[in-house]
Design brief:
By secondary structure, the chain is an alpha/beta fold. The protein has a nine-stranded mixed sheet with strand order 2-1-3-4-5-6-7-8-9, sandwiched between helices. The radius of gyration is 17 Å and the shape is globular.
Length: about 270
């Protein structure tokens, strides 16, 4: 299953429109190229609808909001909905400021999202309409653990039913769920939190996966999350072998995704269904 999802991305080379943040825009472009997709970055309201029209999927990331890009996100999202293109929302830092929280809530009202991906604090903020995060990181009180995972799964399934979107919650334990089924993923390495952009890269890559596998988006999300996490494990091992640092780790992470085979992903993925 995961192998098929990966091969579909590489065979179809989906063109993904990214309205993302300027901290990680280059990494998002490179991760799309590494996984087999193709990136385009456009955030001016004068062209976002046109760019969305020529693309297969849309990735909206609110990491560095400003008064110019918010209207562009809504325009692009509505155009993508009109064209029945997959759309993913990454509500980076929702709960950290009123602007981020209000914008995320407004986007949910204006746009039908195929996937919403964030840490548990960001997702809870969207559910409640307000919340707190530690900057762009999850609040420690919200952490998903083996002890509370069943409750977390039920909450995420409920939010999926409310929004109609697949929900991806990232952290030490990742959860991917629609209203009926959930996957628990245990791939990844703590080193991934020592570079900027792994979450943003995952959103961009997931946009490619759901675009190339739009008939089975839940499993497409699973494949993308497993791929990112397993690539992190491979990158950390190589970093230790070469006595490198966090900047090199980022490059190794992208390389691992570029070089990954479907058989390797099937073997290395650690997940279970709920």
């Amino acid at each position: 299953m995961l192998k098929e999802m990966m091969e579909n991305v590489r065979n179809k080379t989906p063109l993904i429109h990214n309205i993302t943040n300027y901290v990680t825009v280059n990494d998002c472009a490179n991760i799309l190229l590494a996984c087999g997709g193709s990136p385009i970055m456009a955030d001016d309201s004068g062209e976002v609808e046109e760019i969305t029209t020529i693309c297969g999927g849309l990735n909206i990331n609110i990491g560095t909001l400003n008064k110019n890009t918010i209207p562009s996100m809504i325009l692009a999202g509505k155009k993508a909905n009109e064209l029945s293109h997959p759309v993913i929302l990454d509500p980076v830092g929702a709960g950290a400021s009123a602007l981020r929280t209000n914008t995320a809530n407004d986007l949910l009202k204006e746009i039908k999202f195929s996937v919403i991906k964030g840490n548990i604090s960001e997702i809870k903020t969207l559910y409640m309409g307000s919340g707190t995060t530690k900057g762009v990181d999850a609040d420690i009180a919200d952490k998903v653990t083996d002890e509370n995972i069943d409750d977390a799964v039920e909450f995420i399934k409920g939010f999926s039913a409310e929004t109609g979107a697949i929900i991806i919650v990232t952290g030490e334990i990742d959860i991917i769920a629609n209203e009926e089924k959930a996957y628990i993923v245990r791939n990844g390495h703590s080193m991934m939190s020592n570079i900027t952009g792994t979450g943003c890269m995952l959103s961009a890559m997931t946009a490619a996966y759901i675009t190339a596998n739009d008939d089975d988006m839940l499993e497409a999300c699973l494949a993308s999350v497993c791929l990112m996490g397993y690539a992190g494990e491979i990158a950390y091992k190589k970093m230790k072998e070469t006595e490198a640092g966090n900047s090199t780790f980022r490059n190794y992470l992208i390389d691992a995704i570029f070089n990954m085979t479907g058989d390797e992903l099937e073997k290395g993925a650690k997940y279970e269904s709920k």
